[in-house]
Each structure stands twice: as structure tokens, then as C-alpha cells.
Amino acid sequence: MSHPEEKLAGLGLKLPDVAKPVAAYVPAVRTGDLVYTSGQLPLREGTLIATGKVGGEVSAEVASECAQQCALNALAAVKAEIGDLANVKRIVKAVAFIASTPDFTGQPQVANGASELFGQVFGDAGQHARSAVGVPVLPLDAPVEVELIVEVG
């Protein structure tokens, strides 16, 4: 089995630097065999990919790309906590918050931007429980935020 970062490279992606917190928290915390990430925004090189509401200023397709970037940022936070993504035993749970208009109901499809990445990178160990929640607003007017619970070895 190839290394998770090799799989990312095969998808044309790379792990970013850990995103700097926008308030008083840390990107990830390990307790026992679990790593909990803080909510990760779709920051790429320090800038949000998009701002606004999904179903309004942000299309579902762009929001799905945002979810994928959130997932990459979450994996970067996990790696910083455990040293090597090869030590991930399972993605246990992902929670995706989608800032959306009241009539938008495609939150699960937006969250697939993150979920599908976990499957591509970790195979069966990337299959996880998930919540996809519509919310009125997210920090910095981000359209998507993702947090993870990861089992590590």
C-alpha cells in the first residue's frame, strides 16, 4: 500500500502547512488513540477559496472543492499531531458545516468533497461516520468548515 501523501500526489494534491488558528484554540488535540481536529476552513495559502453562502454566491461545485481543501487542512493538522499520516488507522467521523441559503438542501453532496478524498487516500480506513449540517454563517464568511475524529496507531 502506498503512503497517504503519495496517494495525494497521485490526485494532484499535496498536504498544506497547518492553517493558523483564527482565534484561541489549537488545530488538533490527541487523547489516547484519537485525534480531534478543530474546524478547518477552506484556506489555501492563507486565503479562503470562496466566501458567502452555498446556494447563493457559492455554487455547490465550488463548495465541494472547499470541503476538499478543509479536509486537506484537517489532515495537515493530524499529521502535525502524530508525525506521519501512515499512522492513521481510520477516519472515524467527519463533521461538515455548510453555510447555506435557507432553500439549499445539498449539504451531503458538498460534504462529499471531503469524504471522497478520505476514501481515495485511506481506502477502507477512510470510510467514516459523518454529519453534514447547514448553518447560517461560518467564521470569516467561509462557505464550509470540516472537523475530524481520527484513530491513530
Automatic annotation (TrEMBL):
Residues 6-151 form the Endoribonuclease L-PSP/chorismate mutase-like domain. InterPro entries: Endoribo_LPSP/chorism_mut-like (IPR013813), RutC-like_sf (IPR035959). Gene3D superfamilies: RutC-like. Pfam families: YjgF_endoribonc. It comes from the Bacteria. This is Enamine deaminase RidA (YjgF/YER057c/UK114 family). It comes from Kribbella pratensis.
